[in-house]
Amino acid sequence: TTGDVIKVSIDRNEILSYKDPDVTVPQMIGITKHRFAKGAVVVMCVINPATGNTNVLVGAGDGTLAFINPNLNIVAGYKTTLMGGITSISMHHKTRKFAVGTDQCNRYELSPDLIEAELKTSCHFGPINDVAFPQGCPELVVTSSFGDIRVWNTRAKQELLRIQVPNLECMCSQVTPSGTTILSGWDDGKIRAFYPETGRMKFVIPDAHSEKVTALAIADNDARAPWRIVSGGGEGRVRVWKVTSSHQAMLCSLKEHRGPVNCIKINADSTQCISASSDGSCIVWDLDRCVRIIALFEPNVFESVLYHPDESQMLTCGSNHKITYWDAADGQTIRVIEGGDEGMTTLDILPSGEFFVSGSRDKL
Q1: d(Cα 320, Cα 340) in Å, to the nearest integer?
Q2: Is the pLDDT assigned to residue 346 strictly greater than 90?
Q3: Are the beta carbons of 133 and 153 closer than 8 angstroms?
Q4: Residue 165 confidence (pLDDT)
């Protein structure tokens, strides 16, 4: 971790008898003057393609990859920097190219002279907090995690776009109905919107919540301005925002939840929404009058909620391992079924309403 690379002679006397003293013993004979940031994590002896000498390839914790010669000096021109700390190095026995892995879940292929670096595979290196599909486009998917949002092609299984916001965690994301905006909520309390083609910032709502932005939903069609965003925060507030081409303004702030808002869903005509919270309540809100319509209570940490396509029922799931059907008219429980061996985390339903799918912490 100090960033030094030391050279040790392993010569020692031939062992003739257990009584013979050691005259020649292993000892340090050199140390690098250059210190690698965040430690020299991986070392590998290789043949320098230019000189034919045996060099040491060093991978550092800051992503630096460099050759050092037998004198423990960095070889000029044979140094590069990758994204993430180096965790492993391997060399192909025929092409002599290097496969390098990093702690940000990136795998690179590098030429023997370290000049050409190609990113072969990549994924998030932290928990994936949300997954969003653009409307009517199953070939693309948007994932949210620590430090970035990524857009993937599901058929090619390739990353198409990476939107990076260093040192922050994206808690939730949505794609607007027109597909022109990726909307995201972050742990610094801001709502950020990005262009999906380039990843450039479209707009940001600062101080959208005093704590993390934990849930997002889109009301109205964003192709016709103004349109609305409904957001939920870690402090329990549900807020409605009006968005135009030039500005964003809060229409109302609703405070009845006493815990984080984990999920928000909008009904078909964007007149109502339902919010699920860790405080054991789900509340149906009138988005036009900004008032509560009904509330659902259960000794549970609600993780997800959704409307049945005909909006006659609502489904919820949470930490009690159960999936509950609720009557949308009066909020009464209709049916309760066992969901899994551990807490339930997510729900989705077919447009026909014939089947629904659930996910839980038991990975089923």
Answers
A1: 9
A2: yes
A3: no
A4: 95
SS (H, E, C) 150-202: EEEECCCCEEEEEEEEEEEEEEEEEECCCCCCEEEEECCCCEEEECCCCCCEE
My answer on whether omega of the bond before 127 falls inside 30° of 0, hence cis, is no
Give the whole-angstrom CA distance, residue 182 versus residue 193.
Answer: 6
Lowest-pLDDT choice from 69-83, 136-150, 283-297: 69-83
CA distance 79 to 132: 39
Predicted TM-score of the model (pTM):
0.85
Lowest model confidence (mean pLDDT) among 10-24, 79-93, 180-194, 208-222: 10-24
pLDDT tens digits along 237-256: 999 999 998 999 999 999 99
For range 31-57, the mean pLDDT: 87
